[in-house]
Specification:
single chain, 52% helix, Alpha-Beta Plaits, alpha+beta, SH3 type barrels, 4-stranded antiparallel sheet, 7 helices, elongated, Helix Hairpins, 3 domains
Length: 254
């Protein structure tokens, strides 16, 4: 009887090893076929290792059944250990699952440009198991825990940095002539748009909201590259103030 159990155990080991090897091979082939989708290598490796771990655990449990080992206490022990590990690694696991769902959702990918809650425009450089790495257009590196990144509101712009949109919001003070405000803002937008020419030139102006301080408006221009967003915003604000001052239309804030 023991000889038969030994043969079955060896068969289970071989099948487990073959399944684990096949899953790794299949995962690599799948990644190569979908490499144009910019699959995150870190998360791909984590998923691959997780699948192999499950296969090995199932293989061990099968061998235990062959030798009539009572696995009830083992399941109970694994359950208690799992709860303890989950409590001890709660923050780490929340970051891991947040990264997993962000990647699966495919709304945010490596290489995409985003506008964060605080107005920072940045490029997604990597989404690892713990944190998301961003590079702001000002050159700063931002490392944000995945759980914070997944829970905040972000505005996705584009998978490329071409024809980037820059938006300025401001309030024209009381007594300003509306036509003068519009003409001055458009003039400022044209100056900056010519300095950073995009393939599709866009300079748009909108009166947005009437506030206690004055009339709020938006000025939107397109520029050649997201990398120039900070410099273009600087130029746009400077020229906006200059052009409106020429027309006696002071700004009171935003």
């Amino acid at each position: 009887m023991w000889f038969l159990n030994l043969l079955l155990s060896l068969l289970a080991i071989v099948i487990t090893w073959l399944l684990a090897s096949w899953s790794a091979s299949f995962s690599k082939r799948w990644a190569n076929r979908h490499k144009d989708n910019k699959i995150n290598p870190t998360m791909h490796l984590i998923v691959q290792r997780a699948i192999q771990t499950v296969i090995y655990i199932l293989g061990l449990l099968t061998i235990g059944q062959i030798w009539h080992i009572n696995i009830g206490p083992l399941w109970a022990g694994l359950g208690v250990a799992g709860v303890a590990i989950a409590l001890g690694l709660q923050e780490t696991l929340s970051n891991l699952f947040a990264a997993f769902f962000v990647i699966i959702d495919k709304t945010i990918r490596v290489g995409a440009y985003l506008k964060l809650d605080d107005g920072t425009v940045a490029k997604v450089e990597d989404i690892s198991w713990r944190s998301t790495r961003l590079k702001a257009t000002s050159g700063e590196r931002i490392i944000m825990p995945n759980r914070l990144f997944a829970n905040q509101k972000v505005i996705g712009r584009s998978q490329t940095d071409k024809n980037w949109m820059v938006t300025i919001e401001a309030i024209a003070g009381p007594g300003s002539q509306l036509t003068e405000v519009e003409q001055g803002a458009l003039a400022a937008g044209q100056i900056v748009a010519k300095k950073y020419p995009a393939k599709t030139a866009t300079v748009k102006f909108y009166f947005d909201e009437l506030t206690a301080a004055g009339l709020k408006f938006k000025l939107v221009i397109s520029i050649d590259s997201a990398a120039n967003e900070t410099a273009a915003r600087h130029e746009l604000l400077k020229n906006l103030i200059i052009e409106l001052a020429k027309r006696s239309c002071p700004l009171v804030g935003r």
